[in-house]
Every structure is written in C-alpha cells, then in structure tokens.
Amino acid sequence: xxxxxxxxxxxxxxxxxxxxxxxxxxxxxxxxxxxxxxxxxxxxxxxxxxxxxxxxxxxxxxxxxxxxxxxxxxxxxxxxxxxxxxxxxxxxxxxxxxxxxxxxxxxxxxxxxxxxxxxxxxxxxxxxxxxxxxxxxxxxxxxxxxxxxxxxxxxxxxxxxxxxxxx
Length: 167
Hints:
Layout: H1 2-21, E1 23-29, E2 35-41, E3 44-45, E4 50-56, H2 60-65, E5 70-78, E6 83-94, H3 97-103, E7 121-135, H4 140-153, E8 161-166
Antiparallel strand pairs: 1-2, 1-5, 3-4, 4-7, 5-6, 6-7, 7-8
C-alpha cells in the first residue's frame, strides 16, 4: 500500500509541475528521421494522463504523426526554479467540437482568428506513457543551500526531487 501512495504522490507532483510550467516543447520525428521540436501551450492534463493542445490540422507536426498514433516527446522547463519534466507518449489528432469548446481560451485567437469556427483548428492529444521530473528547491536560497549541502556531503537529495514514472 505504501508503494501505491508514493506513486500517487509522484503523479500528483508531475501534474503540479506541468500545471505550473504550462508550455511544452513537443518533439516529433520528421519523415527523414530527423527530430523537430516546437512550443505548445498545455491546455489540460486529464484524468487518463493525456495532455491536450490546440494545433493547426495542416501543420507539419500533424503530418509527422499522420497515419495513426506516433511516439512523441514533450519537455517542460523552468530553469529559475530548477523544475523540469520530460514526457514520452503517443500523439493523436482529435477533432471534437465539444472538447475544443471546453478548452478554448482567447490566447488561441492569434493562431485561430475564426475561433472555434476555424476549419484548421484541431486538438493534439498526447497519451503519456512515461515521464520523469526534476523538482529543485524553489528559491535561490534553497538552491544555494542544496548545492552547498550536496558539495559538502555528497547528498544529491538536497538538490531536489527526481522521479521516473510509468503511467
């Protein structure tokens, strides 16, 4: 039971970090095998551990995942707080008007000026399979203390929390 509680705590920590970090760099594999990354605003992390993003249905990233579910990577970072998240999962293009309406925010208007009626508007759903996070001490003093303690004692735990999750 204790292991289950620890995993729930780690998943909760992952959720909190993603909610705080908000913008992910999505990496896909181009048709020639090269990797390509671009920023996306996270709209939601749902109860099924899926991340949701607005996207253009005609964007290169959609072409790279066309034909089914494809492996992608997402990375989040806040160097000031020493918080980082890495996610791997499968991406799917979703055209669900109800879900789009539920997730719509005005920040999307510059990319989709016709709003919810924009024929190019779609959702990208990334089902998380694995994740890892690094949660450093949030303040400069905490970071300095952690680094000093790690240098003096070899105790890397003072640098913050790190966990690998299979979701």
